[in-house]
Amino acid sequence: MSSLKTSTEPNMTRRDAQRSPGGAKQWPEKPRPAASSYLLLIVAGLALALFFFASATSTLVVDFGLARVPLYPLIGTALVALIILVGWVSRTSAMPVLGAMVALGVTWWAGSGIGFTLAPLWEDLHRAAPVLEGFLNPNWGFIWRVWDSWVATIAMAIVASAIGCAIGLLLALGASPVSSPTGWFSQVLKAINSVIRSIPDVGYGLLFVAMLGGTASGGGPLAGIMALTLFNMGVVAKLTSESIDAVSPGPLEAADASGASLIQRNRVAVLPQILPSYFSYSLYVFELNIRSSVVLGIVGAGGIGSVISVQLSRFAYDNIAAIIVALILVVLLVDFISLQIRRRLT
């Protein structure tokens, strides 16, 4: 009975709609939530406000004449009141309002735990003057003086994309239960992929720079390629295995009926269906590599990132500004070309 009642509620609502004198439909008002639940929300809001004032670390205060109130707890309390007021006016039930209050409380806890404050934005603004002056006067000629570093950055991205995407495809075929030889083999490869993806590219970069040596010892580019390759393997294997999971079963059933081996089955029934998506993922990974190789260069993997690190230590902000503008143009160009190719593939 209850399910029948629920299924007919929309029709009843339409029938209950009335027309105003002007002819427009007037829908029945949403029922007001129970006042008792909102009283509990107010109590929870007061407890949350007390938590704000007790855990505040900022020294910013608002002077009301008779009292000086900490700024951030005041803002937090105002947000709590606003959440409850909006929930009551919009006739929202208590649970979504409570969820919003919990989200606000967790955000406050995270920010207060690290002493988050916006005060340095205006208290230390004088330090930004030489930086802004340098960034507003880029040294365009410096871009061509570090041309070899640009080439090294793009070369690292290309080599890492080629190796990482090729290995990632093999991992995806082994990780998907559709194309894997056995179920346990699929689970093992999925676990390996999860471990590979759990480490960011910068983490791999620091590890390989420590193992192989940085730019000074000549091992920087190899360390960058190794870091990007592992990063690419994890991303491509994850995305491609999900594409394999969603392939059409018709070609698979036809291959099984004809007695094809696993390799023949994957070659004729799986790869043709996922190759457009796979190439699209590979181009996306190449875009990521251009950005990531700059960061890896800063940690010692060579390329244009190392140039940025050196210029930063010399306070040569005009040179850094020229590099950043050129980098934005390079990334936008690669993104545009990749997008056009991906549109033709998918």
Automatic annotation (TrEMBL):
Membrane topology: Multi-pass membrane protein
Domain ABC transmembrane type-1: 150-338
Main localization (coarse): membrane
Biased composition (Polar residues): 1-11
Alphabetical list of InterPro entries matching this protein: MetI-like, MetI-like_sf, PhnE/PtxC
Organism: Enteractinococcus fodinae
Origin: domain of life: Bacteria
Region listing for Disordered, in residue ranges: 1-31
PROSITE patterns for the chain: ABC_TM1
Name the record gives this protein: Phosphonate transport system permease protein
CDD domains the record matches: TM_PBP2
Intracellular or extracellular location(s): Cell membrane
TM region positions: 38-57, 69-90, 97-122, 150-173, 206-231, 268-286, 293-313, 319-339
Family (UniProt): Belongs to the binding-protein-dependent transport system permease family.
NCBIfam families linked to this entry: PhnE
